[in-house]
Amino acid sequence: MFGDMMGMMGKLKETQQKVEDTKKRLDTVLIDEASSDGKLKITLTANRTIKSIQVDDSLLNDKEELEDYLILTLNKAIEKATSVNEAELAAVAKEGMPDIPGMDMFK
C-alpha cells in the first residue's frame, strides 16, 4: 500500500515538473494575430506576454479607431494564446495522472 502511495507521489512530482517545463516552453511559442485589414499586427507568447505590436501609420490619425483595433486584435490574440496554453498544460496533466481506482473519469 505504501509502495503504491510512494509511486503515486513520485509520479505527481514528475508531472508537476513537466507542467513547469511546459510553462517555460510556452514562453517561446509565439502567437501572431492581425486585424482583418492587416493594419495592426500583434505577437504574444502562449503564456500571454505581448512581444510586439505593429501599427500602420494610417491608424495614428484616429485615437478611437486605434483603440478599437487594439481591443479587438488583442482579444483575438489572447483567446488563441489561451487555447494553446490550456491544451498544452491539460495534455501534460492528463498524461501524469496516476491510476487511482474510481478516478478514471479524468482521463
UniProtKB/TrEMBL annotation:
NCBIfam families found in the cross-reference section: DNA_YbaB_EbfC
Q: GO cellular component annotations, sorted alphabetically?
A: bacterial nucleoid; cytoplasm
- The protein's name: Nucleoid-associated protein F6U93_01445
Q: Where, per UniProt, does this protein localize? A: Cytoplasm, Nucleoid
Report the GO molecular function annotations. DNA binding
What InterPro entries does the database record attribute to this sequence?
YbaB-like_sf, YbaB/EbfC
Question: What are the record keywords, sorted?
Answer: Cytoplasm, DNA-binding
Instruction: Spell out the family assignment given in the record's similarity comment.
Output: Belongs to the YbaB/EbfC family.
Q: How does it assemble?
A: Homodimer.
Q: What is the stated purpose of this protein?
A: Binds to DNA and alters its conformation. May be involved in regulation of gene expression, nucleoid organization and DNA protection.
